TrEMBL record:
The protein's name: Bifunctional protein FolD
Tetrahydrofolate dehydrogenase/cyclohydrolase NAD(P)-binding domain sequence ranges: 133-275
Record's function text: Catalyzes the oxidation of 5,10-methylenetetrahydrofolate to 5,10-methenyltetrahydrofolate and then the hydrolysis of 5,10-methenyltetrahydrofolate to 10-formyltetrahydrofolate.
Pfam families: THF_DHG_CYH, THF_DHG_CYH_C
Domain (Tetrahydrofolate dehydrogenase/cyclohydrolase catalytic): residue spans on this chain: 3-114
Reactions catalysed according to its record: (6R)-5,10-methylene-5,6,7,8-tetrahydrofolate + NADP(+) = (6R)-5,10-methenyltetrahydrofolate + NADPH; (6R)-5,10-methenyltetrahydrofolate + H2O = (6R)-10-formyltetrahydrofolate + H(+)
UniProt gene name: folD
A GO BP annotation: methionine biosynthetic process
GO MF, one annotated term: methylenetetrahydrofolate dehydrogenase (NADP+) activity
Known EC number: 1.5.1.5, 3.5.4.9
Origin: domain of life: Archaea
Keywords on record: Amino-acid biosynthesis, Histidine biosynthesis, Hydrolase, Methionine biosynthesis, Multifunctional enzyme, NADP, One-carbon metabolism, Oxidoreductase, Purine biosynthesis
Organism expressing this protein natively: Methanolacinia petrolearia (strain DSM 11571 / OCM 486 / SEBR 4847) (Methanoplanus petrolearius)
Residues the entry annotates as binding NADP(+): G159, R160, S161, T225
Amino acid sequence: MILNGKELSEKRLAIVKSEIEKTDLKPCLATVIVGEDPASQLYVRMKHNACGKVGIRSVGVELPGDSMTEDVINAVEKLNKDPAVHGILVQLPLPRGIDTEKVIESVIPEKDVDGFHPLNNGRLFSGRPDFVPCTPGGIMTILREYEIDPAGKKAVVIGRSVDVGRPMAALLINADATVTVCHSKTQNLAEETSKADILISAIGRARFVGPEMVKKGAVVIDVGTNHDENGKLCGDVDFEKVEPIASAITPVPGGVGPMTIATLMENTLESARRHANL
Ligand SMILES: NC(=O)C1=CN([C@@H]2O[C@H](COP(=O)(O)OP(=O)(O)OC[C@H]3O[C@@H](n4cnc5c(N)ncnc54)[C@H](OP(=O)(O)O)[C@@H]3O)[C@@H](O)[C@H]2O)C=CC1
Ligand SMILES: Nc1nc(=O)c2c([nH]1)NC[C@@H]1CN(c3ccc(C(=O)N[C@@H](CCC(=O)O)C(=O)O)cc3)C=[N+]21
């Protein structure tokens, strides 16, 4: 079975849209982008487009690539204070030389719709999540909507980044899975991944996960957004070879990516609701 993230995201976006139409809420997402990385510009554009679709107002702050950490923090603090702004997203990665942690910590947790602030991280890891990072949050929505219950299952996450791998592991722990986290220092990676009932790959290497790494009947979630040697967009998983042995699998494109954006819209709506005490 192919887990259709694109279709599911359309459904979730339609819900966000109708929720906004039902209320007087005027949710607003602010994005901050530093420098001119074309991939970051593309992603931010996609986020603004999604806002437009569902009726979320969006404002974009663009700072030059040679900005200092303080410049970025000043821009964030303005947005923190602006009562019309409900969500703040600082597009990552930031240019070298900028202290990413400091910038992320400058976003007030109430507007941290990306779920990257250490307070929101801590809540998630304590089992009392508030704003959850959009990519792992979107993956949990896919699992829920397709009635794949992680409880009691063995889940293996490849990747331990703060934005994807770690929060993914925490969400799966909270959902009662038995979780293993693998990374570049893991020995016998294939041995670990072959035990997974649910395998989640967030490493950033084109078609790295082959059929020899996957147990028959496993659910395979591919977070990777990579370009192969021909410049073609592809995931971490060798889809052609793994799809026949998986019981369910997300494609790239059309899997996790669109759900990341849908979850961002949901978090922004939720923040606006709280602001209005609804
Ligand atoms: N679809 C979406 O919405 C999103 C997609 N992405 C994509 O997901 C991928 C991962 O992103 P992100 O987590 O930010 O990436 P990072 O580069 O921050 O982290 C990659 C992780 O993978 C591990 N890793 C790298 N190579 C190997 C290997 N050969 N074997 C085992 N582990 C390895 C690293 O280990 P170590 O810690 O030891 O270095 C690290 O923990 C990228 O392709 C990115 O583009 C990211 C965010 C959202
Ligand atoms: N503060 C911050 N928050 C993020 O959530 C964040 C970030 N920084 N930095 C970069 C990563 C990456 N990311 C993606 C979002 C959507 C797709 C997506 O929709 N992809 C489409 C394809 C898009 C294409 O055509 O290239 C798909 O998979 O179908 C991919 C990747 C969010 N990120």
